[in-house]
Design a protein that fits this description.
globular; binds 2-acetamido-2-deoxy-beta-D-glucopyranose; 5 helices; 6-stranded antiparallel sheet; 2 domains; alpha+beta; signal
């Protein structure tokens, strides 16, 4: 009996680790933290030679060839109306935002699906419909005027869902990707390792008090 219980526990854990917590019908993109390439550039223009579908076997950067011709390839997946961007930690989804593309479907491109009016669900808490600031795949670039770049050479954050940047103590939102550059606030400066760095809020509070980091970013259709 003891052996049986042990076997049962081991099997359950193996399943938990291998299966992320959502129904991924078509994986579009995956990138791991610390790989030193830009998630935005890979999403928009990257190339991938991998054609498998096992999430635990994909390379550090995976971009579906579907993205080369996104709008017309979407027509082949008419029953899939939701695009999800998710952050994973040890293969488990820890934060996500779901966008509904069923309306204006033939206008969807690589950037405009990520819009507040398409947002239908967020995890680990519902963030609401805004107002947001710099919401988008292309997110937040600061300072935008290169001539005025001083000590804080570049701050570029993408896949950005923020409710505002008022002060470092009150910044809040759901998630963002630190692509490069030196960070400005104490909370973002806690980021570990090399970019890209994936951060998210564990609850609906300031990043200062709710921040955590993920090790993988994925985008999929469901
Ligand atoms: C997506 O939008 C369509 C059309 O507005 C609606 O019928 C459907 O219920 C929405 N799906 C979700 C999950 O919100």
């Amino acid at each position: 009996m003891k052996n049986f219980c042990y076997f049962f526990v081991v099997c359950c854990c193996a399943i938990c680790i291998a299966e992320p917590t959502d129904d991924i019908r078509q994986l579009l993109f995956s990138i791991r933290s610390g790989v030193n390439v830009s998630p935005l550039q890979e999403w928009l223009h990257g190339r991938s030679q991998y054609y498998g579908s096992r999430l635990d076997a994909i390379p550090d950067v995976y971009r579906s060839s579907m993205l080369d011709d996104f709008n017309s390839r979407l027509k082949l997946f008419k029953s899939l109306n939701l695009i999800v961007v998710a952050m994973l930690k040890s293969e488990q989804i820890v934060a996500s935002a779901t966008f509904n593309i069923s309306d204006r479907r033939n206008q969807v491109d690589l950037v405009n699906w990520f819009a507040p009016d398409r947002l239908v669900d967020t995890k680990p808490f519902w963030i609401g419909k805004g107002p947001f600031i710099d919401f988008g795949v292309e997110g937040f670039q600061w300072p935008s005027d290169k001539q005025h770049r001083g000590d804080w050479a570049t701050i570029t954050r993408t896949f950005y869902i923020h409710k505002g940047h008022r002060t470092c103590q009150t910044d809040s939102g759901l998630m963002g990707v630190i692509e490069e550059g030196k960070e400005y606030c104490d909370w973002s400066d806690k980021a570990p390792g090399q970019p890209p760095i994936f951060y998210y809020a564990k609850n609906d509070a300031s990043y200062e008090s709710s921040l955590d980091f993920a090790d993988q970013l994925i985008v999929y259709l469901k």
